[in-house]
Amino acid sequence: QVQLVESGGGLVQAGGSLRLSCAASGLTFSRYAMAWFRQAPGKEREFVAVISWSSDTTNDADSVKGRFTIARDNAKNTVYLQMNSLKPEDTAVYYCAASNSGGRYSVPRSEALYNHWGQGTQVTVSS
After folding, report:
1. Cys staple from 30: which of 34, 65, 74, 86, with CB 3.0 to 4.6 Å?
2. 50-76 pLDDT, tens per residue?
């Protein structure tokens, strides 16, 4: 059974930092692209960042470029999202997701290409 478990969310002031983690089990982690999505209250879930199998390729949403960094440790079956210079508009539930829809360098941005999802972790940024 595949499990993705997010952690590291919380309440932070604007300008602060948080690091999210997502621990995966029940899948061959190194053969999955891993991504973060987020969903703010009253809004649709949106893509944040993705990293390929062996960290060769990453892709970020324009709204987080230069502030958020995605990384992974295949030895620990874990993907991270380092979030710096947080803004109130970053407030959302953050979800980890796994996709085996493509090859080694694939970095899909579409939710439809992700077959495993975590339960989410809340990030709240106060102004």
Report:
1. 74
2. 999 999 999 999 999 999 999 999 999
Q: pLDDT tens across 6-38, in order? A: 999 999 999 999 999 999 999 999 999 999 999
Alpha carbon distance 118, 21 (integer Å): 11
Q: Which residues contact 122 (CB under 8 A, 6 or more apart)?
A: 9, 10, 92, 93, 94
